[in-house]
Amino acid sequence: QIPSRLPLLLTHEGVLLPGSTMRTSVDSPRNMQLVRSRLLKGTSLRSTIIGVIPNTSDPTSDCDDLPSLHRIGTAALAVQVVGSNWPKPHYTLLVTGLCRFQILQLLKEKPYPVAEVEQLDRLEQFTNQHKSEEELGELSEQFYKYAVQLVEMLDMSVPAVAKLRRLLDNLPREALPDILTSIIRTSNQEKLQILDAVRLEERFKMTIPLLVRQIEGLKLLQKTRKPKQDDDKRVVAIRPNRRINHIPSTTEDEEEEEDHDDVVMLEKKIRTSSMSEQALKVCLKEIKRLKKMPQSMPEYALTRNYLELMVELPWNKSTKDRLEIRAARILLDNDHYAMEKLKKRVLEYLAVRQLKNNLKGPILCFVGPPGVGKTSVGRSIAKTLGREFHRIALGGVCDQSDIRGHRRTYVGSMPGRIINGLKTVGVNNPVFLLDEVDKLGKSLQGDPAAALLEVLDPEQNHSFTDHYLNVAFDLSQVLFIATANTTATIPPALLDRMEIIQVPGYTQEEKIEIAHRHLIPKQLEQHGLTPQQIQIPQVTTLDIISRYTREAGVRSLDRKLGAICRAVAVKVAEGQHKETKPDRAEAGEGEDCKEHVTEDAKPESISDTADLALPPEMPILIDFHALKDILGPPLYEMEVSERLSQPGVAIGLAWTPLGGEIMFVEASRMDGEGQLTLTGQLGDVMKESAHLAISWLRSNAKRYQLTNASGSFDLLDNTDIHLHFPAGAVTKDGPSAGVTIVTCLASLFSGRLVCSDVAMTGEITLRGLVLPVGGIKDKVLAAHRAGLKRIIIPQRNEKDLEEIAVNVRQDLMFVMASCLDEVLNAAFDGGFAVKPRVERLNSKL
Ligand code: ADP
């Protein structure tokens, strides 16, 4: 039902029919006035309904007088008004026709005409009154057939055509003549006739010839096109050339259309995505630019990639935490053997999280040698929380845009690793493991550690701005965990944001347990083996640990086990394995095991054993011989006692980021001018320790009865000393070798051997005091690994021993030394002769 008074829009080109849409330019004063006061000011839907009167003579010519009006017009809804100032002020109006009307009386002419009108057609009317009429039924049927025929001649893959086809079936037949007339090629005059055909029957009659004409035209066109299609194929083949010549072809147009569709899809995705308001604004602006940009512009692809990333980012998507401390404890215990301190702290952390549902707190940083399970604990934490896990390797990263992304102005710019990680996991609350934060570099491209500060600070990271995105992204839901080998190289500001949890190396016993509980089952599964096919007794594991690996973690142990599994897998797959019967005792019982002779890889041994009573095929028992076969001769022998068979050698303990290690210090003397030579890539502190040691020994030579080769107490008289620290290729530094150097030189000048099972560590002073050093736990474990029995440590390090597992402590004897006298006494069998001193040294430190 349209209003009975309608403002009139007078058009002079184009005829609007009910059911169709038309874009018309408005520039005459009357029409402009109508748009301004009616459409732009109006607020209700009714005020946007106007009457469109076609075929008015050009209104620009006569300004004042209203031209004669066509009696019949179309009531229309103004859908869109776009204003512009160029080349002259005008509006472009998008109107949709609703129904016909007839002007009854003109009510006013200025500033724009308003008329009293009568609505001419009404849909219900048709359906009720005319449907039954025989003739009309036939007419409409005929019309419908033509319409379908016409549509089917068009290309159905074009979305508009497919839509039209659907419309044909869904719309009431009565509405079709108007709609089709406005679609097919017709002149304004013809359209006007259709508009004037108020009676439906008349309208059908008039439209049918138009349809037929269009169908015939199409047929003709298709006939002429057919041979041309072959041409098209040829054209496709040489298309690159055409591109160069910029000759537009139909296929290119289609492509463009397709791309346009993509952009529309993208826009839809942007609108439906849950990005922040700020981001949405930026995206909409970009998509507007994208629409105007030719595709060939390099920026087109850039902008598109950007928008696609923005749509993909998990702005609002998160997984639900399921955290139950008891279950978390069980899961951690199941996944990891030992590392009690670490597990305890992690559980505390999780418990606090459960109680206080937010993440504001220190970032956990696991520090320890490689292969001790730092990464895998991180993974377990993600598992207990039910969160996604993502590892970001920071080793060697020396460009801050790696963290924060490049600005989009750069060619090949991309977002930083944090945003990339979020895109990969697809949720905004994953567990991010920042691996190897101690190996961040620094370069001209800025300091990545500084960029990380913002990421890790809970006060700031809710609005982390990646340079590429250029809008803030909320990182506050992300759980960050860091790992490092040493805290020494982590920038202090970064260190300040983190809580350090030391993860020390494992003892041999722990390694055996880890191997049997975790590593071996995992390797068997990876290689498709079962415990019925391969058996690795504990003594073999111990052999692997002590003779084939020397590490704080279990990574190379894992690799060796992998090598064994591979070798066995070959045997199993070949199915030609034979095994001699075990002589006696059960597998896995101490040294006896060495007597089990498994098959040798050599074919002769197979034929040898084939004669014996047929042995059981499976399981293949890995004993020392098999081990030698698979892994080759042992890499590390227990060489300690051999190396100490002459004076001038002592064993020190060193700490490295890879765990503790034992270190031999060798000294020799020769005729010369009292020079000290140091080799083995020593740092300054270590060189100074050597000078300290020599000075102290020279000043105490008499007391200890130390002489040079010619029997003089002046140790450097006619004597050169050379100190060497294997392995020569590894840089060493630190004060803790002091006591070892003293012991080594004391042995050299006294000609006595240092006990072969003693290792030591401690800093010295010029007055002969022994000062505490760091890394005691790792050092003790290293000595234990190497099979040493007695360890000399500074008195003030006694408290550190509590951290060491009881079974390791039981195997070792600790000597606490507070001065060098005590060190020397403990290092040599039967003590070191000292002439009684008059006064004792007292430290006032
Ligand atoms: P890191 O990150 O400390 O260098 P990883 O986490 O990569 O070491 O650990 C190496 C391997 O050792 C992993 O396969 C892990 O499962 C295993 N592993 C280390 N420690 C343990 C442990 N305590 N219990 C079970 N497996 C362990």
UniProtKB/TrEMBL annotation:
Residues 644-830 form the Lon proteolytic domain. Residues 6-215 form the Lon N-terminal domain. Residues 575-605 are annotated as: Disordered. Its EC number is 3.4.21.-. GO terms for biological process: protein quality control for misfolded or incompletely synthesized proteins. GO terms for cellular component: peroxisomal matrix. Keywords: Acetylation, ATP-binding, Hydrolase, Nucleotide-binding, Peroxisome, Protease, Serine protease. The keyword ATP-binding applies. The active site is at 736, 779. The keyword Mitochondrion does not apply. ATP binds at residues 368-375. It is an enzyme of class 3 (hydrolase). One of its GO terms (molecular function) is ATP hydrolysis activity. It is found in: Peroxisome matrix. Belongs to the peptidase S16 family. Interacts with PEX5. Interacts with TYSND1. May interact with enzymes involved in beta-oxidation of fatty acids, including ACOX1/AOX. This is Lon protease homolog. It comes from Burhinus bistriatus.
